[in-house]
Amino acid sequence: MKILLTGANGYIGMRLLQKLLELKHEVVCAVRDANRLSIDKETKQKVTIIEIDFLEELDENPIPKDIDAAYYLIHSMSSSTSDFDEKEAKAAKKFNRYIKNTTVEQVIYLSGIVNNEELSKHLSSRKKVEEILYEGDFHLTVLRAGIIVGSGSSSFEIIRDLCEKLPVMITPKWVLTKTQPIAIRDVIAFLTGVLGNEETYDQSFDIGGPDVLTYKDMLHKYAKVRGFKNWIFTVPVMTPKLSSYWLYFVTSTSYKLAMNLVDSMKTEVIAKDNRLQQLLDIKPHTYEQAIDMAFKKIEQNLVVSSWKDSIASGQVKEDLEKYIQVPKYGVLKDMQSVKVDDKEKTLENIWRIGGETGWYYGSWLWKIRGFLDKLNGGPGLRRGRTHPDKIFPGDALDFWRVLLADRKASRLLLFAEMRLPGEAWLEFKIDDDNVLHQIATFRPKGLKGRLYWYSVLPFHYFIFNGMIKNISNT
């Protein structure tokens, strides 16, 4: 089948893409920015990539007409705390219009479980999108899921951060809300299982794992799987805003996502039936099995996708291509160069920078900078990186975003997503004479930007000089 995969560079989309290719489908990946599709060259050769923003008016519709089915995986919850519902409704209407002239027979939408009359803004938006899609000229299949647990999922990473960092927690009362988590592996099984299945046309199904748990239960069970004990005490006085700040500072989540998650966590999310698992003969994994499978992927460095690589997890909301050309005028620079003896070893060091490896010099200074950035509303260092030694354009790398990662050309270009009075780039490249060039470029915004640069200049001298020496092993 020829399948349109929207949101192909998202957490679910990246996992689903691999499975669809395994099943020998022809896949058309719809993304806002082709440079941000974090897949290897071999995979790119197997798919068709189109650029389309469903929030914008298009002069020409890039969607091929001979589409058999489509997955609708477009969400905006991480990008805003105020108007994400309007954006999601607008995108769904545009999708209906743009796909109308194709031969698509089935559209599959991954939504959220809806079983309360008073819904959170997040779940209310999901329901509205579902209603809009039902108006389209195609057969719609809706899968409604609750918390999705898997390596790199926002839910898993938040639970992981909380439990690993806080053995004793004082938590808001929403941790007593019941939910029904489901393993990412089962979500993908359901998404592919309904493809082309006429018995699922024009229907909505709840999907969930076998366990109905409170968030407190989930935190305790995580600790059990990991082999330690934690203590959780609930208090009724934590407001949604305080709860959001709590999640934001303790975990790697963004503040906007934290706000929307807290709003949703006050609502019970429990599957109403298991019709679909009987129809498709799928037996979902338990929550503890989902945690265990997630860690096996992490330990084997097989994490396919992470929510942290989403553009919404950082500060840059525009097309990344805009920043690839590093400015030459009106900028301040720190330039370091050193001759390297072992080019491949140096490249290996560059490609492992950030995350668990760190920044090769002055780790405590980087941590302080990350903490200050977090206090100022930036991502800080907690995003880390998805792969220990693989980098793709668009990836998050601590408080940087990867603009270009060309191993063959020996060049890595990063753009700063930390809160700054200006714009910053960090570049590593090795020339034909085996000289490593490390260039930090800063384009200040007004006097404040220049004062910032000169105030940190003494730290730059030690940090950047130490970095290049350790990266090149000189």
Briefly summarize what is shown.
The protein has helices at 11-22, 41-44, 84-99, 121-133, 154-165, 184-193, 215-226, 240-250, 255-265, 275-280, 287-299, 343-351, 363-375, 446-472; strands at residues 2-6, 26-31, 48-51, 69-72, 106-112, 139-145, 148-149, 168-172, 178-179, 182-183, 203-207, 213-214, 231-235, 332-339, 396-397, 400-406, 411-416, 422-430, 435-444.
Mean pLDDT: 84
Helix vs. strand class: alpha/beta
Percentage of residues in strands: 15-25%
The strands making up the biggest β-sheet line up spatially as 3-2-1-4-5-6-11
Molecular shape: globular
Q: Which segments are poorly predicted (pLDDT under 50) over 5 or more consecutive residues?
A: 77-81
Helices, by number, come to: 14
Describe this protein's structure.
The protein has 474 residues and is an alpha/beta fold. The chain contains 14 helices and 19 strands. It has helices at 11-22, 41-44, 84-99, 121-133, 154-165, 184-193, 215-226, 240-250, 255-265, 275-280, 287-299, 343-351, 363-375, 446-472, and strands spanning 2-6, 26-31, 48-51, 69-72, 106-112, 139-145, 148-149, 168-172, 178-179, 182-183, 203-207, 213-214, 231-235, 332-339, 396-397, 400-406, 411-416, 422-430, 435-444. Strands 3-2-1-4-5-6-11 form a seven-stranded parallel β-sheet, with helices on both faces. Strands 14-19-18-17-16-15 form a six-stranded antiparallel β-sheet. The protein starts with a strand and ends with a helix.
